[in-house]
């Protein structure tokens, strides 16, 4: 393989730029030509593709977002859209593509691979919801953003007797909520993977109040439902003064953490190695601190599992 392409797709995540940088530099190190595709699959179909040089990725390792931009495209979900994308790449002589994104983006990469165009998926999403990797690029940064935000809420909370419901991202996965719950010492963590009755959450709040607790923090994963609704129910049920914070998109932004930069560098580099070996249809990841790769269809057929031992621990530590 002499020419490869790289794109970012779906929801952006801090550390995507560090991954793009690693792909470009690793490819050039091995004397490959590397092309950046702008605006995800949308730009791929339109031929919005530019050759990248060493300098193209200078000064981006610390930047959030993605310099290649991201987009969502319905046309690309069709056979005709995918064929158009392959033709654009063949015109330039690109022989393999690295897709940095989440599971939706990997479905696109799987389709291209099935059509004879080798792709590698690099998990870039704050949700940590991709099977076959302990961490996705962006998760650690988003977690730290939540931890800092909840610390600030706790500062003001100590002055009032209040219950705080904090809604965090994660789509259908509870990882961000669970990790933040442990890191922030929340009274309750509510995640989609584990049903917890409303009565048990309320019971815990009341017991805390009886013990003289000044405030309580409940971290709710967005996959469970609306924080605002949940806060209303709590207030109705307990008559406690309740406040809701929906952290929203601040969780997607910001400079990537040291961990995310290193993870992105390792995974980006591995994806180039795979294409150089003529391998496509894989998703890279890290398991027990070792860089691994798995079959893309297998990754897409599995369901990410939250660590239930950590969930138990969060409950044990918040009695
Ligand atoms: P993420 O990668 O963050 O999960 P999306 O689910 O929005 O984000 O997917 C990003 C893009 O990937 C979509 O806009 C679409 O172009 C492409 N994609 C998603 N699902 C498929 C699919 N089943 N087949 C082909 N392309 C897909």
TrEMBL record:
Keyword Acetylation: no
Keywords, in A-Z order: Allosteric enzyme, ATP-binding, Cytoplasm, Glycolysis, Kinase, Magnesium, Metal-binding, Nucleotide-binding, Transferase
Gene3D superfamilies per UniProt: 3.40.50.450, Phosphofructokinase domain
Ligand binding (substrate): 125-127, 162, 169-171, 222, 243, 249-252
GO biological process: canonical glycolysis; fructose 1,6-bisphosphate metabolic process; fructose 6-phosphate metabolic process
Reaction equations catalysed: beta-D-fructose 6-phosphate + ATP = beta-D-fructose 1,6-bisphosphate + ADP + H(+)
One GO cellular component, as annotated: 6-phosphofructokinase complex
Pfam families per record: PFK (PF00365)
Phosphofructokinase domain: residues covered: 3-275
Ligand binding (ADP): 21-25, 154, 185-187, 211, 213-215
Mechanisms controlling activity: Allosterically activated by ADP and other diphosphonucleosides, and allosterically inhibited by phosphoenolpyruvate.
Source organism, top-level taxon: Bacteria
Binding residue positions for Mg(2+): 103
Compartments in which it is found: Cytoplasm
Active-site residue list: 127 (proton acceptor)
Cited SUPFAM superfamilies: Phosphofructokinase
Family in the record: Belongs to the phosphofructokinase type A (PFKA) family. ATP-dependent PFK group I subfamily. Prokaryotic clade 'B1' sub-subfamily.
Function text: Catalyzes the phosphorylation of D-fructose 6-phosphate to fructose 1,6-bisphosphate by ATP, the first committing step of glycolysis.
HAMAP family in the record: Phosphofructokinase_I_B1
Protein name (database record): ATP-dependent 6-phosphofructokinase
């Amino acid at each position: 393989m002499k020419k490869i392409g790289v794109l970012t797709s779906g929801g952006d995540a801090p550390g995507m730029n560090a991954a793009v940088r690693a792909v470009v530099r690793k490819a050039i190190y091995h004397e490959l030509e590397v092309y950046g595709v702008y605006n995800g699959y949308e730009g791929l179909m339109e031929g919005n593709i530019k050759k990248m040089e060493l300098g193209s990725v200078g000064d981006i390792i610390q930047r959030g977002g993605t310099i290649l931009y991201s987009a969502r495209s319905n046309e690309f979900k069709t056979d005709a859209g995918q064929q158009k994308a392959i033709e654009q790449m063949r015109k330039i002589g690109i022989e393999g593509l690295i897709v940095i994104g989440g599971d939706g983006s990997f479905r696109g990469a799987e389709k291209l691979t099935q059509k004879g165009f080798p792709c590698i998926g690099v998990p870039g999403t704050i949700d940590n919801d991709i099977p076959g990797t302990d961490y996705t690029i962006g998760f650690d940064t988003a977690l730290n953003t939540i931890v800092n935000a909840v610390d600030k809420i706790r500062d003001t909370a100590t002055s009032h007797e209040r219950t705080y419901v904090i809604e965090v991202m994660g789509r259908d996965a509870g990882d961000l909520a669970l990790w933040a719950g442990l890191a922030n010492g929340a009274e309750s963590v509510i995640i989609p993977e584990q049903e917890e009755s409303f009565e048990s959450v309320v019971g815990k709040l009341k017991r805390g109040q009886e013990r003289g607790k000044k405030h309580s923090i409940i971290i709710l994963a967005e996959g469970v439902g609306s924080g605002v609704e949940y806060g209303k129910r709590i207030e109705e049920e307990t008559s406690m003064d309740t406040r809701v914070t929906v952290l929203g998109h601040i969780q997607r932004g910001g400079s990537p953490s040291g961990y995310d930069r290193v993870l992105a560098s390792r995974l980006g580099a591995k994806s180039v190695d795979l294409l150089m070996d003529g391998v496509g249809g894989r998703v890279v990841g890290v398991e027990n601190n070792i860089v691994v790769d798995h079959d893309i269809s297998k990754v897409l057929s599995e369901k990410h599992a939250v660590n239930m031992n950590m969930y138990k621990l969060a409950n044990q530590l918040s009695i």
